[in-house]
Queue: 4 jobs
Job 1
Amino acid sequence: MNELRPVKGAAFAPVERNPGTKLNRDWFEDVQVNLSAAERRAATLGTRRTVKKDYQAAWLVKALQCIDLTTLAGDDTPGRVRRLCAKARRPLRDDIVEALGLADAPPKVGAVCVYPAMIPPAVKALEGSGIPVASVATGFPAGLTPLPQRLAEIRYAAGEGAQEIDIVIHRAQVLTQDWAALYDEVATMREACGEAHMKAILATGDLKTLRNVYKASMVAMQAGADFIKTSTGKEDVNATLPVSLTMVRALRDYGELSGFKVGFKPAGGLKTAKDAISWLILMKEELGRRWLEPDLFRIGASSMLADIERQLEHHVTGRYAALTHHALA
């Protein structure tokens, strides 16, 4: 595996937005997914490949740049969102940034993700930073409100300034194999997003089988999803490596069949710097270096950031600080 070098990232051509395709069942209907093989492959990701020292620091900085820093709590306030945005702008302490040689271009996170009502304070707090605001919508997390209300929520979020919309699919359409209904709903949601990029949350913990995960991934991409995302973070089981492996192989297949690149976002359950490295290795080995950039890869997390900062502090000082030493996102 070619290691990510500890230098500023290479420039890549912008990704052409996925326009979707017609619903083509031949691309997924007869797919078979070997659960045991997927689990064995996933288990090797953190053991066959390792990154150390400067390379590990570079990978952790890259992971930081792909984080969707998130708050989706019932007691969110504008003040909490402003604090989250301040951390998004400066995710690492200045002394760590300087020690890493990144003072000329300090890293920042990939996006800040909030509920629709919290979009205005997030947009204001991030003004001029280049960090996009992402909003959940469509009756998050269950997605069971009537379609007109779900579409209205998308339009509201986009109108308030969200540049990315994380929609949730109707899981029953997957469980009953009603692919036409799933396709039509997701395509309609994509249209409602307008210029805002759409991440389709599959809630994979509710889909029961990896075959369902693969099929739902393919239908969401055919319907025009810019990203496919594992979870809302509210299911009993959220992002796992076998599920993520299945989804990224669907991404690879879709790219070969359609010619378009689609992004991937694991969310829920990723908490440590070690988790970040495991998912970066997955993306690098399965899809290549291009999928280590925030326009094609995001990590839905907040607590992970504190551990990444702690590991980077250890890299530059040789000492581990207590977790409480670093500001929580």
Note: The longest strand covers residues 164-168.
Job 2
Amino acid sequence: MKAKLLAEREKDSKGEPEKKKSALFGFRQKVQWGVFVLTIAIGIQFFIYVYQASQGGQITVLRPPGVEGFLPIGALMGWKLFILTGLWDTVHPAAMVILGYAALISVLLRKSFCGWFCPAGSLSEMLWKLGRRLFGENFIVPLWLDIPLRSVKYLLLGFFLWVIIRMGSDEIHMFLQSPYYKLSDVKMLFFFTRISVTTLVVFIILVLLSIPIRNFWCRYLCPYGALMGLLALVSPTRIQRNPGSCTDCKRCTKACPYHLPVDRKLNVRSAECNGCMDCTLCCPAKDTLEMKTKGMGKRSWSVVRLGTVIIIVFLSSVYTAQITGHWKSSVTEHELIFRLKEIDSPKYLHPGIRGR
């Protein structure tokens, strides 16, 4: 009976509907590429900005606040300070906006920030798809090794949260106003432009592991993704499967980038689910596998609708931050030029390192 139902579903899915599904499969990738290219452009613009400032001459480009998306630890400190005192970090305010956006999306629409928006996640996906083309399939880490490896990102997240939780509001405020933090975005840039041999070797190893193994960085090491996954556990949105019309073809499980057993679940609640919706697109049985939000009745999310909401919420967050004065850094060009002259002095070491 299941085989007959599967044959009928596959027959119905041919032609125009199949072409439509192929187009939908590429929609998320278009969003990912758009954000990835934007991130590269922001990086190039910031490099030019810092280079011109370091020369002490005229600065012809604006500092892109979006670069602060790579300062999540400072953003976490900023949010704690805001919750305790109502003070908004003026040094790197965009970092708080971007982290807040990622958290909001994760709570509402699962870990879709990672599956749709994060440039590191997009790069990781590009690498494992390259590996699938090269080797025909991706390597699946054995369960006895996969589980302890997955705990690493939560341990890293736990360490950062433990440090921040122990800090009082005065201590956080001092850190956010410290010389180090005022140039932390430049320090982050130098991490890539002045890369050490050790860092380069580690980066190469991560890239090589990301080719045969799906989302190696995201699955095992990313504390940012760990936080978004924990927030997604309370999300009212999840993948739902109708066992009555399911054909047991297991295409959904094979398509899942995190190897989740979608074909055996009524609801996918895992913190690993990144809302990519690839499982729903590959399902041959109509209305069998859908992403739904509690309270929306029988309405389900389409790929286009989900992606559109993710983009609109981001643009709205940035626009709101801009018009309310919570987006642009208070570090002026004049101050940056002055501080860059002494950036290699002990004064600009991390306060924790400098205090040893």
Note: The CA atoms of residues 342 and 348 lie 8 Å apart.
Job 3
Amino acid sequence: MTHSYATHLSCPKCKNTYSIEGIHQLCSCGSPLLVRYDLAKAKSKVSKESLSGRESTLWRYHEFLPVLQKENVVSLGEGFTPITSLNRLGSSISLPSLFLKDEGLVPSGSFKARGAAVGISKAKELGVTELAMPTNGNAGAAWSLYAAKAGITAHIVMPVEAPEITRKEVLISGGRLYLINGLISDAGKTVAAFVQEHDCYDASTLKEPYRIEGKKTMGYEIAEQFNWSLPDVILYPTGGGVGLIGIYKAFRELLELGWLENDKLPRLVAVQSEGCAPIVKAHEAGESSSVFWENSQTKAFGINVPKALGDFLVLEAIAKTNGTAIAVSEADIEIYQRKVAQEEGQFICPEGAATIAAATKLRESNWISHDEQVLCLNTGMGIKYPETVLSKTIPTLEKGERIKEEYH
């Protein structure tokens, strides 16, 4: 059996095509490129039943990933994260069928490991020895770690306000870290100049076509874990939007393969913070692309992206699934991060908490009904963001002293 049915790259805007065996970044028209597969041929050779017994990583779907030769796979065991039922919290917000897919339980502690695993594997296959990328933290950490395993040098530029642990992940893995006084958009400009000057591989979001392929495996897993009958609504924290684009791409591929129980796709919801909501603003205005969001700020640092290169693909995925885009307050992000920990025992990241806050708002407005299956994506470990936990006075006892008063 072939390792991959990948055939070529194509542009979603101008329809130009490119070889999957050479290094390509953006299309000549400036659009991101997408990997295409011979799904008709794959359909006759691979069945969903054949997945049984395969390794519990994202590489169980290797036929639908872009790495052509198995020996080029760089893996740390990423993927196949659990989906848990949020029974107590769901009941309290009138969503008894509320679920969470926890992407914090992958190498490097965030869903960015998926894009790094596939992106680095393909970079290795293409002969890349040096790459550069801007990041809000987690992506840079993941790509540095996977690059180290592949023997590739990683240049990482992140804002000075990025979570401190992500800096340390880059440094300990031997990545070359640069901090910038500004946002990820400013880091992107610095990387673009570096790439031109040093003829380096640009691993920026959607400027290489393979990160999205790693992210799309969340969609394949969701389908398999729900026994090929998808939930009604999926909420995703959206910055660059690659995860949401990838999940939609996965569902489209699964439809073409005939693996889904029906052709009704989940309504996809892009969740943003009120402090940075360019996708929400564009969706509400009926626009096909977004406008740069000035002075963006949110504690959910991973979705602090003022302008996404693939915004048109995010907006298309929302529109094609009758989904929506919604912004939540910083206060609600804090509240629901705490609620999930206290009621469900899961310490999720602020971005993940934003999806729970959004589900609550959409239930209150009846956009989501009481009897629908709702899946929220938690994209990282809460412990990577210790500064988001509100401080409180903790009683200190002397040796032998008994607890005398109620804990406040």
Note: The chain has a mean pLDDT of 95.
Job 4
Amino acid sequence: MRLRVVTTAAILLCLVRVASAHRLDEYLQATILSVDKDHVQASMRMIPGVAVASAVIASIDSNGDGLLSPAEQRAYAERVLGDLSLTVDGKRVQPKLVSVDFPQVELMREGLGEIHIEFTADLPHGGPDRKFILENHHQRQNAAYLVNCLVPRDPDIRIVGQTRNERQSFYQLDYVQAGGPSQSRLSQWWTNVRESMSALGFASIFRLGMRHIAEGTDHLLFLLVLLLPAPLIVSGSRWAGFSGARSSVLRILSIVTAFTIGHSITLAFAAFGIVRVPSRPIEVLIAVSILVSAIHALRPIFPGKEAGIAAFFGLIHGLAFAATLGELGLGRWERVAGILAFNLGIETMQMVVVAVTMPSLILISRTRAYIILRTGGALFAGFASVGWIVERLTGVHGSVDVVVGAVAHHAAWIAGALFLISLGCRRLCNIFERKTRARSASSDRAATSAFDHSRAVAQIE
């Protein structure tokens, strides 16, 4: 329903904007369609520009008295419908006038008046795959056409595609009318989901999920800071040395997987309306999750339990993801397809981020330089999270988003530099280890030589 309202509002906003600007030489004709099982409803809003208004008025005012009588208005509306061509599955259907409303003549002359025509057309019975075509030839020499379709109110009807020519004088609507008695429940469920994917644009919502993570600096910051200590082992109450490549990879993957499971659960629950939480507490808790992760990166407060913490806070982050998905105003089956596409987009971007950062973390965590990266990253995240907490509690926006956004804007360069630094640190570490071993071996040889010399002197004596 929300998407239906948004679509209508967008078209009306377009009409209001162009009307308030005193249109000049175009005759704007915008049509909004609503499809049902046995009929289609249409609303036409027609705004003649200043340069063509006089000609349009003259074509309506058949007796030339300067007034548009109800009979003249209806006659003109019938002419408009006569210039329309409507077909369903290749069969021509006849539009029927429902209502007509005309503005004052003075407004029309100024390019502000809007003619409003409502009509309907009965649809013949057909199969599940249907094709509706509308062609508008009215005043085509100076017309500008717009056509769009509202989301069907009937859950058994799913829009598959919309095709227009460049002028939008030709419009084709492909839709599926599901819910036949021969379909099993499982088959109908899959049909609904598949058709919803097609209607929504699965790839578009997939990209929306990727973009939400790419632009959601707070979500990424939580995950990255939680990964910082993953390659390390705990000694007492401090982070110690490298835990090993295999152990590091497994721990990083477990954290990412747990975060995925957590936010997937609440994303589904919130998207279907099972869980409803105001947005401000969620945003505050997300900032708190970053602060907790930052403290943990400095000092281990839940060593070995990072996956559980990731799953717990993932539940909170999932509610924020659901808020973005909810803004699309999807219906029941669209939500199933939308959740799948959106979640896959989120996971894809997460894996891209992990794949880019994991080699650097594992390489540099073998060296003493890792303490600088871990401490610096934790402090940056900690200060950012505190700033976000204050902003989201008070509702006063500061500069935290600007600073974090500026850093995120150069994320690719930072990731590349970090990888080069990790290679350099690892190489220096290898050189240092070789020199240390060489000095140790030299010292051992010197000690052995001195011992042998002492034994030789003792034997001589």
Note: The radius of gyration is 34 Å.
